[in-house]
Write a structure and sequence with these properties.
mainly alpha, 14 helices
Length: about 250
């Protein structure tokens, strides 16, 4: 406990020391955030976080999970939440993430649900959930299917977007079947299985995921849009086909 409090207190002090009150209001307004900002740009925030972790590394996954959750739940500025979601990927903690990454899943789920906004969702989906899927497909695939059919729209968006950084076979673990299994519950008219038929962040997320897939499988994405077109929002189709039209494919 003492070790993780030291890391948190040092990190907070480091962020406070670099605060830029002139930038903070615009950042808060852009993110529509209830939490205020320090006004620190992302590259500098990451440098501060990396330096503090290098100085006060954690030595076991329980301490890492506890620290991440405490920093997140006690956050007084939004940059503290960004740092909390990035702690496990700092160099001194990467071995813990590789060996015991599944132990952090409850923390990441808590962050996605309580953060309930696109910046947290997209950072965690690509930076944490995708890599966990690559390392632990047997455990992660059923979980992502449950998220994709569940009652939280940000977990649905996470399931849809988490593969966007994964490579396709034979180099990587990308799973097209899983992608479409995570997309389908969130398209079409309102139903018990799809309570958000007009939700912008789901429509946009599906389009983004399909656009990323179109770089490797253009015919597949075009065929999906043709088959499910009546159930897809125009925004989704535009996003899905944007890269193909730009490339003249």
């Amino acid at each position: 406990m003492a070790a993780h409090r030291l890391l948190i207190d040092t990190l907070r002090a480091g962020l406070q020391a670099q605060a830029d009150p002139a930038r903070a209001p615009a950042m808060q307004a852009y993110m529509k955030s209830a939490l205020p900002f320090h006004g620190i740009a992302a590259p500098l925030r990451r440098q501060i976080t990396a330096a503090v972790v290098q100085q006060h590394p954690l030595v076991d996954p329980t301490a890492l999970a506890d620290t991440m959750r405490a920093l997140w739940d006690e956050a007084r500025f939004r940059e503290e939440r960004y740092a909390a979601s990035e702690l496990a990927r700092q160099r001194p903690h990467r071995a813990l993430l590789a060996q015991q990454g599944l132990a952090l899943l409850p923390v990441y789920e808590h962050m996605i649900v309580t953060g309930a906004w696109w910046d947290h969702c997209d950072e965690i989906s690509g930076g944490a959930i995708g890599p966990l899927l690559a390392r632990h497909p047997a455990q992660m695939k059923p979980l992502l299917r449950r998220w994709a059919q569940g009652s939280d729209l940000w977990l649905r968006r996470t399931a849809i977007l988490c593969q966007r950084g994964l490579k396709v076979a034979p180099q990587g673990p990308f799973d097209a079947e899983l992608l479409y299994a995570c997309i389908l519950p969130s398209i079409g008219p309102a139903s018990a299985g799809n309570p958000w038929p007009d939700e912008f962040f789901l429509r946009k997320g599906i389009g983004w995921a399909l656009r990323e897939r179109s770089y490797d499988a253009p015919d597949e994405v075009r065929a999906f849009c043709a088959e499910y077109g009546p159930r897809l929002a125009p925004l989704t189709v535009r996003e899905a086909l944007k890269a193909l039209k730009r490339r003249g494919i």
